[in-house]
Amino acid sequence: MESVESGGDASASNGQYQGAFQLSSQVAAEYGGYSGSAADKYVAARYGSWAAAAAHHREYGWY
Hints:
- There is one protein chain.
- By secondary structure, this protein is mainly α.
- The termini are close together.
- It has 4 helices and 3 strands, in the order H-E-E-E-H-H-H.
- Strands 1-2-3 form a 3-stranded antiparallel β-sheet.
């Protein structure tokens, strides 16, 4: 997902979304920043797994 969201660029920015995983500031505050670890926690809480997040992305164009 990282490459889809930001091309793997940790300094990527798109409006309110920041970092390689394009997390919002609210998500970053809740899960501990913009790191891969924070993204893992967010994905686990919201989707249950990266596979489920990827399926959501394929269907809706975002995760």
